[in-house]
Amino acid sequence: MHILHQQIGAPKIKIEADSKNSAKLIMTPLPSGYGSTLGNAMRRVLLSSIPGTAVVAMKIDGVSHEYSTLKGVKNSVFDIMLNLRELKLKKHSKGVEVVEIPFVKSGVITAKDLKVSSDIEILDPSQIIATCDGADPKKKISIRVEKGVGYKLISNEDNAKEEDPEYILMDANFSPVLHVSYKVTPARVGEQTNLDQLEVEIKTDGSLEAERTLKLAAGILQSYFELFNRDDAYTDEEFTTSFDQIKKQKETEEAEASAAAEASFTPIDILGLSQRTLNALVNGGITSVEQLTSTPMKILSQLRGFGQKAKTELEQVLAERGYSLQPLTSSQTES
To answer: 2-17: buried (b, 16+ CB within 10 Å) or exposed (e) per residue?
Structure first.
């Protein structure tokens, strides 16, 4: 981590979830330029490396290619393929599952008509697959549903390896991420004005919550960068730091400040003042010798119960012990 964080503190991360499918990550403060560096890396991973579910192949009885037409079906086979590619599904386990969709005599076939197992969730049951008008209800569509990562482009080799020639292989986009954008805006900490604030917005299809998707992308990035430091990790202590070092430094500073405060507190009781004078000072909020010596006599004289006798006694006791009161400042005189 940049050594600048020792001055500006560790970045604070906040995730605002508008809904299950939409979220915004805000990270600030960051050194200048780091907003774009982290934002672009997150965006690329979110678009390419998040696992999701897609239809990878389809089969219709008596159909050998996607440019065919079906009797009693208003959509061409190609249109049905495009509709199947838009299905929003969530498969819990890895691997391929075959799902059937029966035709109907007349009406619209939607995603809710899919005969799926408990391993698959239909996220949008209203998605249209085909519209029938006199179709053969004995026929059906068989589709392969697979969980994967990235974009799968079908090649001639894939078609040649296919064991069932009736299946039409389909290009598949497994990513559940529908939209990602990032924005870098100026941030400020004290006198440091050339800092970055990173905002990453994401929208998913619902198969994976937006907040979890952000965390998964960050974990993927981290796993790759750890490869560089697995063995013989190199750090420059003068110009790099870490979250643990910043936390440890903050705890050390707080402990030192607390110890210094305790060390500088001398109870006022050790002066041996009379009970009346001691009560007047304590009731006025003065409980240590340090507080007493930093308070001018004119301010002390305003305390309730602190009269001439107390003033005389205090001056005598302080003189005997080598203490003296602070003089009245101009600001105290005005107030």
So the answer is: bebbeebebbeeeeee
